[in-house]
Amino acid sequence: MSETVMTLVRHGETGWNATGRIQGHLDIPLNATGRAQAAAIGERLGGEAFDTILSSDLERALQTAIPIVRRSRQAIVRDVRLRERHLGVLQGLTGEEAALRHPESWGAFRSRNAQARLEGGETLCEFSQRVVRLIESLLSAHAGSKLLLVTHGGVLDAVYRYTTKMPIDAPRSFPIYNTSVNVLRHRGGIWTMDTWGDFSHLPEELAMDDT
């Protein structure tokens, strides 16, 4: 029975991460800290043999993936399905701005209301289903392979909940760090978790709080 291994990495820090500004589908590059984090994850994972490397097509994820393939020169498959949740009218705003300008959408976002539609964006349920379909399609197309997925915090959240059967509307009880390493295994219809939220490759000055 074949085993599929998925290593998921969240992108490095952006200027908007640092200031609490909501990104969603907006294409924000890494800041200096994020580029240093990307270099560190490149050192950690650059020597590993992945059968396929996939990345969100947004710049902050691609900039994080590039140092990982610098030595191997392996192709990065850009996949729009690995994008962050589309957060509609909240994108580009800080939490304070969102609460003032769009209190209903902000309240739905903060409460993890699974069915509430953020104006112009995805519901939490739609987003979760997108991520689950992606993971299931990768299991089908790459059974028995070792995959690397470079993506976003929301995607990591959805994958964790799917593989552990945690409800999508439950408060989050697990960390999501920039450039953390998260390793999952699938065998015989069962998911197991090797590691979650591992950022031991980062020097102390680059280790970020969960955001």
Brief rundown of the structure:
This protein has 211 residues and is of the alpha/beta class. It has helices at 15-19, 32-45, 59-65, 95-101, 103-110, 124-141, 153-164, and strands spanning 3-10, 52-55, 76-78, 146-151, 181-187, 190-198.
What's the arrangement of secondary structure elements?
Blueprint: E1 3-10, H1 15-19, H2 32-45, E2 52-55, H3 59-65, E3 76-78, H4 95-101, H5 103-110, H6 124-141, E4 146-151, H7 153-164, E5 181-187, E6 190-198
Helix pairs in contact: 4-5, 6-7
Strand content: 15-25%
Overall pLDDT confidence? 95
The name CATH uses for the topology is Rossmann fold
Which regions have little confidence, pLDDT < 50, spanning 5+ residues? Answer: none
The SSE string, one letter per element, is EHHEHEHHHEHEE
Q: Tally of extended strands?
A: 6
**Physical arrangement of strands within the biggest beta sheet:** 3-2-4-1-5-6
Helix content: 25-40%
CATH class value: Alpha Beta
Can you tell me the CATH superfamily?
Phosphoglycerate mutase-like
Q: What is the terminal-to-terminal distance? A: 38 Å
Helix vs. strand class:
alpha/beta
**Any idea what the CATH architecture is?**
3-Layer(aba) Sandwich
Shape: globular
Give a quick account of the main beta sheet: strands, pairing sense, barrel closure. Answer: 6 strands, mixed
Query: What is Rg?
Result: 17 Å
Number of helical regions: 7
Total number of domains: 1
Structural account:
The protein has 211 residues and is an alpha/beta fold. The chain has a single domain, classed as 3-Layer(aba) Sandwich (Rossmann fold). It is 34% helix and 18% strand. It has 7 helices and 6 strands; from the N terminus they run E-H-H-E-H-E-H-H-H-E-H-E-E. It has a 6-stranded mixed beta sheet with strand order 3-2-4-1-5-6. A hairpin with a 2-residue loop joins strand 5 and strand 6. Helix 6 crosses helix 7 (153-164). The radius of gyration is 17 Å and the shape is globular.
